[in-house]
Amino acid sequence: MSHSAPGLNYLNHAKGFKSWALTLDHKRIGIMYMVAVSLAFLAGGILAILVRLELLGPGETIMGPDTYNQSFTLHAVLMVFAFIIPAVPAVMGNFVLPIQLGAKDVAFPRLNLASLYIYLIGAVIVMFALVNGRIDGGWTFYAPYSTSIGNGILFVTAGVFVMGFSSILTGLNFIVTVHKMRAPGLTWNRLPLFIWSIYATSIVQVLATPVIGITVLLLFLEKAFSIGIFDPALGGDPVLFQHFFWFYSHPAVYIMILPAFGVISDLMGTFSRHQVSGYKFVALSSVAIAFLGFLVWGHHMFVSGQSAVSSVVLSLITYLIGIPTGVKVINWVQTMYRGSVQLKSPMLYAIMFLFTFSIGGFTGIMLGVLAIDVHLHDTYFVVAHFHYVMMGGNVIAALGGLHYWWPKMFGKMYNETLAKIAAFLVFFGFNLTFFPQFIMGAQGMPRRYYDYLPQYEFYHELSTYGSWVLAAGLFLIMFYMIASLINGKKAGLNPWGALTLEWTHTTTPPDHHNFHDTPVVTRGAYDFHLAKHLFEYGGEVTELDLGGDGTAAAPEEAPVPNEPVA
Amino acid sequence: MSQDHGHHIVPVKMLLAVIGILVFLTILTVALAQVELGIFEVPVALSIALTKAGFVVMIFMALKWDNKVNATILAVGVLCVLIFISFILIDTEFRGDLSNTTEATIMDEQRMEQTLDGREPDRSDISFNRQ
Amino acid sequence: MANPHTNQPAHVKHYFVSSEQQFDAAKMGMWLFLVTEILLFSGMFVAYTIYRSWHPETWMALSTALDWKLGGLNTLVLLASSFTVAMGINQIQRGNQKGLLLNLVLTFVFAGIFLVVKYFEYSAKIEHGLLPGASFDPHGVSHGFDYATYNVPYGPQFFSIYFVMTGIHGFHVLVGMGLFAWITWKAKNGAFSADYYTPVENCGLYWHLVDIIWIFLFPLLYLI
User: Fold this and answer.
1) Structural domain includes residue C203
2) What are the domain boundaries of chain B?
3) I want to staple A310 with a disulfide (CB 3.0 to 4.6 A). Which of A162, A562, B90, C175 is the partner?
4) Given an 8 Å threshold on Cβ–Cβ distance, is B26 in contact with C19?
């Protein structure tokens, strides 16, 4: 292949709208996904702020009940389908995965670009329907209510169906890429844990997403032609809809959280400067979670009227999920204990994750207990639980990953001081928003209600104040990230001293073709005991002491790392 | 160059044999459907269909000579379908097995129980609101 | 035809090391796609299983409403088309482009026959009101048979499942015809050889899956 001139990278080697809109480069597709997904997060986030504002006091605060119902539905649908599911796999997976594998691109670049456009089309259809269609049943679209609320549901189901395709194509692409495109010497035991978790995620995406496809198709037909599969008035079974829906949507929870595990594993290794403890267990626990995730969907349906046998069996299997998850958390703590922790902003998010995700995880097991769930079902306890997992798990990890790979993506460092302030605001605001919801949930505050008894007012107030702090933190991140693009310091080749291929074998930002020569891998992804040796001969950074903002360690005119590390 | 790397060519004779078997099995399953088989009707029809599908997968789709990864992918997919069906059946086959889904209060139930105890075991007048 | 930079045949993309890697990747991707198709259809098979286990008498009564002769004919047509696809791949693996072309055209024709038969089946059902869900209204007399006798409880569910299953399957046949039209065109222009026939292989895999789905649909709906 033609070697690019020095100074040219994937961002500036070609210019103009067409060079982005028709690109097959996984890095550019990842960046475009990032823009799209961030917009969805922004829209969903603003709705969340409005919903919280409405709940500041009992009765009407800023919007009427109908608007409220539509707002939380729109918030949920945007966050679940348009933000969290593609957030880590499609953004960081696309950008990082092929480079970490030592590949020039994913296996099917055209499919990759197609998945972006399919995602955009689906998102537009869903947005259109939600804004015009008066959809107010929450993101789960339970039949028969969802088929009785106007024709907007036709568009929502069509949009979710289309976005599902995008998810399937991404997953399929990554599985084949991991199997067939690894660099010479990159055995399964040497794969970065981020790859392992994206791989497990992709398996779930490929196996579960088709079922939501047929589910929303049947819902579409139920609405359009009254086919009577789900509608009890026509002889159908509404519980069957819940089975279909959760057969996808429970594994989808792992589509959301597994990539976060991968990001956290990478951060733990790099910033503890130590081999991730129990590497094989952490890697295989991702696959175990992916598999177990298919066996537990019935725990969403304990009070739906499903059989007691089913509830008991699925409750038991739910406990098993705690085992591989616990294996991960314990190994991360062990890694920090053995290593020497550097409190850079990405690592702050990783540590934050240990707290918030553990709370989310443990309350998840509580909700999996049959007897407790009957009491807590459809209360704010559930709302708090899944926000601790989704936001405290996925979003926190995604923010950590964003701070970690940002210098690689754009070649610029953000302001580390502001980043630490923002991390604190996010942590504080997040807990202030959602912890009170556990308490009022346990006291019986039902979810999705527009109005509430005065006894819950204190907790609702706390929660709303928390949402402002959280929003301030997130907007601060947006501010300094954009500012870094304009006047950020130039990032070095390897500001964190990480050992995965995207840091050791590519320029910053990476070349259009990722590598000048295909790397040959001779070590594991976290062999930090070899780091001294590697950096002395690899020529990326002159020393391992990464004081200050991390950029000082890299020489201004660093040699292009085109020699595979021997 | 692909041939050098050992893409298996399924011989024409084998393809002809398989299409022969498939046609025979189709006729067989139609013929058996005309006979009264009772409870064996569904298992027989399904096993014939599975056999046919097996021939198509192994010979026509050449999975027999293919990369093991592809066979694993198919196996995992089929496993998922089995989980899907069987776990829903755990619910639907036992639907309504909860004994406390009656509309009667606990007091009512106690009273009914006492009535039962004091009489011959004729339960027809006690209606538990079961599905 | 070799790519001057990599000394690879022209069909090999630059991010692949070899033709073999590209072929394996494409085929693995196709198998993964087939698994998603299996899971898509599995939803309908689950609905079938559940409703059949709840209302077996309806299912046994209404399977007689479907014409096993037409269904059987369609089974044979699809089996034949699967055979021609397999033959086509056999031919191109031996470098016989004309043999491939002949078999692809035959496959396309068989798929067309399948849809024509399906059209006649659907018309008969629609004429007598054997329709899904709320539209279910069996009526009329044909060949001395009164269709009103099909008006049994849960009949609407049976026909919902029948139409959705065969409808999605029919859609896949239609997509398959599109795919075969495309690769027939390419084959006519000599795009395939013993070295490169990946699209034929993958369209073939897709077509066999469509055949397998029908292998299950036929006995489940028409016979038992």
Assistant:
1) yes
2) 1-66, 67-119
3) B90
4) no
